[in-house]
What does this fold into?
Amino acid sequence: MLALPRPKPTLALALQGGGAHGAFTWGVLDRLLEEDIRLVGVSGASAGAMNATMLVQGWARGGRDGARAELANFWERVSAAGRLGPIRPSVTGRLLGRWNVDHAPGTHLVDWARRWVTPYQTQAADFHPLRGLLAEMVEPELIRRSGLRLFVSATNVRTGALRLFDETEVQVDHLLASACLPHLFRAVRIDGQEYWDGGYLANPPLSPLAEACPGADLMVVAINPFTCATTPEDPAGIAARLNQITFNAALLQEMRCLSALPDAPRLHLIGADEHLQDLGLYSKLMTDWSFLNWLRDAGREAAGRWVEENLGRVGVEGTARSPALA
It folds into this structure.
C-alpha cells in the first residue's frame, strides 16, 4: 500500500517591525519562500507591515517567486529613497561590517532634532519619505485577490486602542500609520482618527492571525533582540535596550497568552538576537544598501538554520524557544 504524501507545511507569518532592520525579515522570507510551504496569512507592524504587504501582493502576482521579487524590489527602492539621509556608515564601517552608527555625526543631528523640535514644526501634513515609493508600489486590488489574509496594526493616538486593518482595507496610509514613530513623523489621519506606530500595541498582531488561519502553524519573525549580553551603561546603549524591551513587550505577552490556551496554535520563532544584538538604535534609520544586504544575508542564515532544524516539525509541534518566554 502506497503511503500518502505528507501535506505541505502550512504557515501564517507574523512579522515584527523595526525600521531598516526589517531587511533582516526580508532575508528570512526570501529563504523561507524557497521551501515548498503553504502560506495562508501574514501580519505585521511598521516595517513588518510593509514586508507583509509586499509579500502578499507579490504572491498574488507570481506565487513564491513573485513574493521574493516584490520584497527585493521594495528594499532596493527603500535604499535608493534614503540615499541622501543623514545617517550613514563610515567607509571603515562599511568595509569591516561595523554597522553601529550611534556615534556618527549624522546621528547626533537627528538626536538633537528629536529632542528639541517635533514633526509638527518641520514637516508638511502628509510628508513621509516612503509615501511616494509606496504610492507607486502598493496595489490594493492585488492584495485583495491574493488569497492570503493580511493584518496591519496601528495605534490610535487619542484612545490608545489597537486598530487592525485587513487585506480588504490596506492602502498607503495604513502602512504609513503602522510605521509612524511620533518623534519622526506627524500622526497619520485615517477616517477622522489619527494613528501612530502599530508596534506599541501589537508588534506584530498574533491573535487575529491565529483566529483567521485555523490549523496553521504561526511563525513569528522577531527583529528586536530579546536578550542582551551586558547591562548598558552609556546613554546610547540604554536607549537602544529600552527600545528593544518596549517593542518586544506586547509580542512576548501575546505569545505567552496564546501558549496558555487549551487549543494553542503551534508557535515557531526566528529571532535576530545573534545578529542584531550589538546594533544601536539609530541603525534602524540607516538605509545604506551594503547594510541592508548584510541584514538580508543575516536573515537568510537564520531562516536556513530554522528550516534545517525545524521545518519538519511544522504541523506536529511548536518550536518557539527564548529565555524571554521562560
Summary: The chain has one domain: 10-325.
